[in-house]
User: What shape does this take?
Amino acid sequence: MAQPIPFQYPERINLARTPTPLEKMERLSEKFGVEIFFKRDDYTGTELSGNKVRKLEFILHHAVALGADTVITCGGAQSNHCRATAFAAKRLGLKVVLLLRTPDPDQPPPPEANILLDRLAGATIIWITPEQYQQRDQYFAWQAEQLVAAGACPYIIPEGGSTALGAWGYVATVEELVNDVTELDGSDSVPTTVISAVGSGGTTAGLVMGNKLFDSGFRVVGVNVCDDKDYFQKVVGTILNDFQDRYLAQPVVVTPEDIEILDGYVGKGYALSQTEELEAIRDLARLEGVVLDPVYTGKAYYAMISELEKNPDCFGPRIIFIHTGGLFGLFSIAEQMAEIL
Ligand SMILES: Cc1ncc(COP(=O)(O)O)c(C=O)c1O
Assistant: This one.
């Protein structure tokens, strides 16, 4: 039996409705002949729904402890992270500035779905081009300078909250999952593969680290919804190195094999849906009464069932698919979705 690795959670603010339920997908399990559970992180809240709020619990505690009165963050136009940040910040009485990516900032997308919610929460939205987004650190710095000049105290949250501090949110999720499977099995747990979408890497980094810290023996698989496997192995590896440097007195061995990225399901590209993915979302809604989003969970789910169709044993006897939320994104592609209903 491996020695437990000593660690202490950083302080956090309670924002997420946790622990989230672990629900068995009965008909889906029957279809593929393996147990398939969904960890319902879409139930972490309504405005705060999804994976981001778990990271924000730690990040916003830090912001408040430093005396921040404004948070600045960034993402794609329909960013769930930005929407969750806007509402979480409002719960804490903070102002919010969002740098949102769009091809033409003079003609920003309509106020639909997450953008509508960002505006409802009173976030200041600054539209920037994809090229400007590449230089987002500079834009963060400019925004912060302007806010400081106006007497504010800004706190910058990098893309997706995918920092070492944010990764604690998914370390905590592994602790929940260990309890979930113990409730299912008692002490002898069935080999379990945990699958989730990868967008900026923090969720996967937290799951990989949590798996080590709790010696839970899960196989952690991330499905990239943009970029590729090499890119995300580096991104997740960097977050994990930073995590070790900041928080662990004793090193943890993380190999590239621990950061398993299932590549090949980006499809048409980030936030672009192909018909097969939308059909998978539709079919799951009809089979199990569960709604996925098109940008993250829909792609990760489509990847999972496509692999199971090729080989039902490929993930072992038990799968936990983390439903990381993002439902509002579905309303931004209503017309495209309606075509297959
Ligand atoms: C709904 C949803 N699921 C999954 C992810 C991926 O998480 P991460 O950015 O931590 O890789 C994101 C954000 O990118 C998201 O909004």
